[in-house]
Write a structure and sequence with these properties.
With 147 residues, this protein is mainly alpha-helical. The chain has a single domain (18-147), classed as Flagellar protein FliS (Four Helix Bundle (Hemerythrin (Met), subunit A), Up-down Bundle). The chain is 72% helix and 0% strand. It is built from five helices and no strands. α2 (18-42) packs antiparallel against α3, α2 runs antiparallel to α5 and α4 packs antiparallel against α5 (98-117). It is globular.
Length: 147
């Protein structure tokens, strides 16, 4: 990473809201898994292992954001989602299964889209039915996950 892009990323992280930080972590997780897929396709075991290791660290950070006491059912649901995601990432790595990585990426992007709507005025849950999006304390402010 260049110094300029590293400085930009540091500034973005420092000025981000908690919801934006979660979205940034989802983006990193997706990027890691896409790189793991590329490593599978290239037959590069070391690169795949490095990307999976980083993805698991990112997932650990997402879990650290959970406040099980204040978050109630949504936090419990995310905790279960992260546990299943971790299991599937490890299976995809062990079985050298690019398709399993792709399936996990699709799930992450779906959950990420809900986070994008958390703080938007009049935000609605994704077209999957039900109001299962995470709740934020700044629910009346406009926000996009893009930084």
């Amino acid at each position: 990473m260049t110094t300029q892009s590293s400085e930009y990323q540091n500034a973005a992280v420092q000025s981000a809201s908690p919801t934006q930080l979660v979205c940034m972590l989802y983006d990193t997780l997706v990027r890691d898994m896409n790189r793991a897929i590329l490593a599978i396709e290239a037959g590069n075991i070391e690169e795949r292992a490095a990307e999976v290791k980083h993805a698991l660290l990112v997932l650990q950070q997402l879990e650290a954001f959970l406040d099980m006491e204040k978050g109630g059912e949504p936090a419990a649901n995310l905790s279960r989602f992260y546990a299943v995601l971790r299991n599937n990432i490890m299976k995809a790595h062990a079985e050298v299964d690019a398709e399993r990585f792709r399936n996990q990426i699709a799930l992450i992007l779906w959950v990420r889209s809900a986070w994008e709507q958390v703080e938007g005025p009049g935000s609605q849950s994704p077209d999957r039915g039900g109001d299962n999006k995470p709740k934020g304390e700044k629910a009346n402010q406009s926000l996009s996950c893009s930084v």
